[in-house]
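Final report, Chapter 2: Outcomes

The project's central promise was a pipeline that accepts a single protein chain and returns its three-dimensional structure in a standardized token representation, suitable for archiving and comparison. That pipeline is now operational. To close this chapter, we reproduce one record exactly as it appears in the project archive, with the input sequence first and the structure output second.
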Amino acid sequence: MYAFGVIWLALGKNSSLAPLIVNHSQTMTLTEISQFFQSASVVIASLFAIYGFDAWRREHIGKRQIELAEEVLALFYQARDAIEQIRSPFGFGGEGSSRKPQENEKPEQKQALDQAYVLIERYGHHSELFSKLHSLRYRFMAQVSVEAAAPFDALNRIVNELIICAHKMARLSTTPEWSLRTPEAEQKHRDELLKVHDIYYGTGGDDDPITPKVQRVVDDIERTCRAIIESKGTLYALFNIRFFKRG
């Protein structure tokens, strides 16, 4: 506001600019030319003052917001990779064995339940990452906006869907055959198991029920964070437009 005030005072007090605007045919004297350039120099200096102030604001006031956006974006990238690892159909010997078995479990039941528990076990290896993201959600809401924090909630729903899927896998894979008394019941059981299997391990194609949702979440947070990091829409960005892309 100070800079704009200087511009207004410069233009308002300098009466030599009036004949320039009203009547272009009038001859300018050396004094008028000198006063014109003095006024122009004030305008240019004011613009540079605005530019300098905006740069200072980005450097000091906006520094925390930019750092937060960088951290959040990096963590979302890590979360995307973590979910891919959690759902990987490739396993290692002994995975799922950290599950505490129930009493009187039969060997085939234990094997099925341990297998279903692998996803939860893998999630535990990345729990610190997801906990950190959840804690940053509140800072993001405070420093950016509540609406911009929507990807945090979307990612949390995806993680919950995977955990619920693991529990469903455990239940369906240990359902006794004798309880499926009709062909319809058997077909329903197979359909549910296939659906859970696709969520648990993925399909590897465009019809995957999880991967596209994760990518949309990352794309959404990336747009928000990139805008903050690059400070789009500020005068600083206007003065630093890249007219030619680097090859």
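Archive annotation: The first helix runs from residue 2 to 13.
This record, like all others produced under the grant, will remain available to the consortium after the project formally closes.
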